[in-house]
Amino acid sequence: MQLGQLRNALRNMKDTTAQILAVDPHEAWSAKALLRESGSSTDDVSFPVLMDPSLTVSATYGVPFQMRVHTELSNRPATFIIDKQGVIQFAQRAETFSDRPSVDKVISVLKQLDE
Q1: How far apart are CA 47 and CA 97, in angstroms?
Q2: Which is it for strands 78-82 and 67-69: parallel, antiparallel or unpaired?
Q3: Which pLDDT score, from 0 to 100, does residue 1 have?
Q4: CA gap 74, 72 in Å, rounded
């Protein structure tokens, strides 16, 4: 839900070059199954999703398999805002599965970068 809300908010921002990239620590079939279970499909996703089953990207950003979600281990949800020079300008690594920055917070940080 958060990614969809963020996508919609970015569409409404004028003159932004911000882009969403989601990283999923599972195989593609698992992500597709999750979408189906939520009543969505891959057609509903309008941003790139990087499948990271080897946890290379997840480990780079410090979030590989650190949380039990339902019956399996998974990455802690995390949000990063990276500027055009590749420097992390905002990072929030969740303490719980629902611990995520608000869309308003993310948009606020993006607007500061656009100034």
Answers
A1: 22
A2: unpaired
A3: 65
A4: 6
**Rg (Cα) of the chain, in Å, rounded?**
14
Q: Mean pLDDT across the chain, nearest whole number?
A: 78
Percent of the chain predicted with pLDDT > 70: 85
- Return d(Cα 25, Cα 52) in angstroms, integer: 5
Cα–Cα distances in angstroms (integers) from residue 32 to residues 51, 86, 113, in the given order: 11, 29, 33
What CATH number does residue 78 fall under? 3.40.30.10
Amino acid 70: pLDDT: 57
State how far the Cα of 115 lies from the Cα of 108, in Å rounded to an integer: 11
The total number of structural domains in the chain stands at: 1
Task: Judge whether 83 lies within some domain.
Answer: yes
